Amino acid sequence: MGLRFREEIDLLLGRVYRADEDLEFSTSNDLHIVALRFRLLRQHGFFVSAGTVVCTWRGGSFSTRGLCGSKTRDLLSLYNAAHMAIPGEEALDDAIAFARGHLEAAVNKGELKSPMAEQVSRALGIPLPRSKPRVEATYYIAEYEQEETHDAVLLELAKLDFNLVRALHLKELSDITLWWKALYDEVKLTFCRDRAVEMHFWTLDMVPWDGCSRARIALAKVIGLGGMMDDVYDVHAPFEDCQRFDQAMQRWEESAVSVIPEYLRGFYLQIVRQFNELEGMLKSHEKHRISYLARAVPDAIQIYVQEAKWSNDKYIPTFKEHTEVSLMSSWASTLCLVASAFAEDDVLATEQAVQWGLGMPDMYMACAEITRFRNDVASYQRGRNRKDMANSVECYVKEHGVTGDEAAAAITAMVELSWRRINQGCLEMDRALLPAAARPVVGMSREVEVIYLDGRDGYTFGSDINHIIDRLFVDPVPV
């Protein structure tokens, strides 16, 4: 619902930021309010010091025995707020560890009542600032209804809004599914993952506004094409075929199809034609953007060839070598740029966001790290495809002489640092660019957290996230 009232929320948070004494929310010293205030301000691009949160927390008294409802709420707010930390804020590490320890103990002992028990469990899995807001809404609407003091009008509006947006998403999903079925049948690469729903699911938090259907559809198409490329190089094609496919991609013209093995020709032609169709989705003053995106595909193919060579040679690169290459094959920066490029100008400041993204900002690289490292840790836990090159976990194991679990833990810690760089980037950015430039980055990183939670791979194994898909697409919110 916050998307409906973006300007009003921004104005109100501006008053909070200026410590407007007419607002109790601006001046309260209650830990829950202090932490909530800190989180909301930082999430909306207002820099506020962590000192007030830390001092309020350390000045409080928390018992490890029997958390009452208000203490649990305080700790949950502290835990979620502390995940808005930026590099160098070690005191918030202590806050996370403290809150997490008490919350986990309360869950394990069965001390918490519904709905607080469910809210704590979800946050321990994915902290609130990193969860998909629309998924969280499917739970919170029902939980809010249980509160005796809930606002009936607000509740009804939230339900109606959710179902209206769901109807829009289903229409988009219908269009994407028809497109994907035709493409999948045309290229005849049956070893590729058939994931139309997951493609659309991935887009929902990157460009969440109602007026951005074009961006979500374009983004889903690029995700689908990228997934096929990934499967061709990682799963099926011999190294020699990968090289020939790369030769054609560098020419980027239909006549180059003659150098490609027969079974890949239809796919190559579809890549070129699909990007021509994507250009047709742009308005005349936007069409220059497609050249930036079209260049990204041959660049990605060259990265795939390098990875295929390592796999073919059975070479395990250093962790640094691996990271420099594999971050580009994660598609994170390309997808963020697609999201900005296809968002409608009358909704967001898209041209400025595209120009910002072309500079390959650190936020893009941080998002790529989250994507690559979460994927690799999940692959390590599940067991990777035998044709895949060594992933970052295996490279780290070889280089540092540690166990796989130790390497996975070290890489997971790197993900935390990447999130903090994203937080910092949002605070340093012109706030007018946050929706068009930063939201795709934050949204993609959130998608990754959901897709790879607890070592699952919700894109490769769609059944892993069926329960989430059902909540978003199948089951309407009862009104």
Automatic annotation (TrEMBL):
GO biological process: diterpenoid biosynthetic process
Domain Terpene synthase metal-binding stretches: 183-420
Highest taxon, organism lineage: Eukaryota
GO MF term (any one): magnesium ion binding
Cross-referenced SUPFAM superfamilies: Terpenoid cyclases/Protein prenyltransferases, Terpenoid synthases
InterPro entries found in the cross-reference section: Isoprenoid_synthase_dom_sf (IPR008949), Terpene_cyclase-like_1_C (IPR034741), Terpene_cyclase_plant_C1 (IPR044814), Terpene_synth_N (IPR001906), Terpene_synth_N_sf (IPR036965), Terpene_synthase-like (IPR050148), Terpene_synthase_metal-bd (IPR005630), Terpenoid_cyclase/PrenylTrfase (IPR008930)
Keywords (A to Z) from UniProt: Metal-binding
Spans traversing the lipid bilayer: none
Keyword Aminoacyl-tRNA synthetase applies: no
All copies of domain Terpene synthase N-terminal, residue ranges: 4-124
One Pfam short name: Terpene_synth_C
Cofactor(s), by name: Mg(2+); Mn(2+)
UniProt entry tagged with the keyword Metal-binding: yes
PANTHER family, sorted: BETA-SELINENE SYNTHASE, OS04G0344100 PROTEIN-RELATED
Name the UniProt record assigns to this protein: Terpene synthase
